[in-house]
Write a structure and sequence with these properties.
Length: 421
């Protein structure tokens, strides 16, 4: 029983937010990033609050401009006219009609408010030059905005089928008649490349007319060393070279990794596989070069888990799947290393905390470093945030990791205060 009554509580205007518990990932993806080059800060969101966490001091800073739940986030390092040197810019989009905010970390300064006319923005991405902000809403409308001038450049209807991922092009073309794509969208049986010429936003559908490719749910994508790499429901990687409009190569990852930080194959786990925005596509099997995704994989008949998240840095591609595995690839898409996130968490927590079932699914990835030595930031569908250090082919948990252990799915109905702590 509490020893104080409600009359002992301070007024609301005297209270300050001191800590936000949790991280929203059960129905959101690609929403966890390092906020500075030293990896001291991470940025993410929960409820209607944008959060920057200092990993060492465990202090949080907040962006509180939103009036409803945040559903999407994008970040980029850029040079602003009113700032000296490069700064980290964050865009966040929310549920409802009040669209998106652009703010700076770590001081949480508001830089722009965007009213795109879209309802419930669920995906955001900056263009390579950071001048434009691309947004996709739950009704699948696609908008491109000049965020600094708070102006919508173009807005069109996207695919009627659910969109699962938005990825920017890292090349020099894509705007003002440059001829190349500005970004890619992928989803339920479609991949599209989008270009902007003046105020005219157009798209081209990518063909799956390859002997080992088939229409399916495309869950993640990234532009990596002159090519688009798309993560598929059947566990394959589809490769589309820059300038092409069709799948030109299909790569199969190795069988599920063992429950240790190595590349040794072993039997993987299972669990439901919800894609972004709460969609729950059924499981599919990897192909063996025939059929429509219903055959066995080339790896001895092992069903491959869907690839739900991707991230890249110079010369290094990172993929995450629905059973909690993270895999590292070089620029030729040769497999380097596999990491079982659940096994690492279990080792650090002495078996007291495990990621199980659908909550192992990788929802967000971020990386700083090289293939020989890098820091990975991993967000799971169970709303946990884990930092992993990779060095010399070995993976270990970062200091203080798991950084966040959150609630996932539905509402929080129970709360109790410890009597002495």
């Amino acid at each position: 029983m509490c020893s104080y009554s409600s009359k002992d509580m301070p007024d609301n205007d005297e209270m300050e937010l001191a800590w936000v518990h949790g991280y929203r990932a059960f129905d959101c993806r690609n929403n966890l990033r390092f906020a500075d080059p030293t990896q001291q800060y991470i940025v993410y969101f929960a409820a209607n609050v944008g959060i920057v966490l200092n990993k060492t001091t465990r202090e949080q800073k907040y962006f509180r401009g939103h009036t409803d739940d945040i559903l999407a986030m994008a970040t980029i390092n850029t040079n602003l006219a009113d700032e000296s040197g490069d700064v980290q810019i964050v865009a966040t989009g929310q549920r409802g009609k009040k669209s998106a905010f652009v703010w700076k970390v770590p001081d949480m300064t508001l830089k722009s408010t965007l009213e795109t006319g879209q309802k419930s923005i669920c995906m955001l991405e900056f263009s390579k030059d950071a001048r434009l902000l691309i947004s996709i809403a739950e009704d699948n409308t696609v908008a491109v905005s000049d965020w600094a001038n708070q102006r919508v450049v173009a807005k069109v209807d996207g695919e009627p089928a659910p969109t699962f991922h938005l990825a920017r092009h890292h090349g020099d073309s894509g705007t003002n008649g440059g001829g190349g794509p500005l970004f890619m969208t992928c989803g339920d049986k479609f991949m599209r490349l989008w270009s902007l010429s003046g105020r005219n936003l157009t798209s081209t559908k990518i063909s799956t007319a390859h002997k080992e490719a088939s229409p399916q749910k495309f869950l993640s994508a990234v532009f990596f060393h002159g090519k688009w790499v798309v993560g598929c429901m059947d566990g394959c990687l589809y490769v589309i070279p820059d300038g092409e409009k069709k799948v030109c190569d299909v790569r199969l990852p190795p069988p599920p990794v063992a429950p240790v930080a190595s590349s040794t194959p072993a039997k993987g786990g299972s669990g439901k596989n919800p894609a972004s925005r709460g969609k729950k596509p059924p499981p599919a099997k990897a192909k063996g070069g025939k059929g429509k995704g219903k055959g066995k994989s080339k790896g001895g008949g092992v069903k491959l888990p869907a690839i739900t998240s991707m991230y890249c840095v110079d010369g290094l591609l990172i993929t995450g799947d629905r059973v909690g595995q993270v895999m590292l690839w070089n620029k030729e898409l040769q497999f380097l290393q596999g990491i079982c996130i659940d096994a690492l968490v279990n080792q650090v927590c002495d078996g007291m905390y495990r990621l199980v079932g659908q909550y192992r699914q990788i929802q967000s990835l971020c990386c700083v470093g090289t293939a020989e030595n890098c820091s990975l930031l991993v967000g799971t569908r169970g709303c946990d945030v884990v930092e992993v250090q990779c060095s010399g082919g070995q993976a270990t948990m970062g200091v203080g990791s798991p950084l966040i252990q959150g609630h996932a799915d539905d509402e929080l109905w129970g709360l109790a205060v410890h009597p002495t702590r």
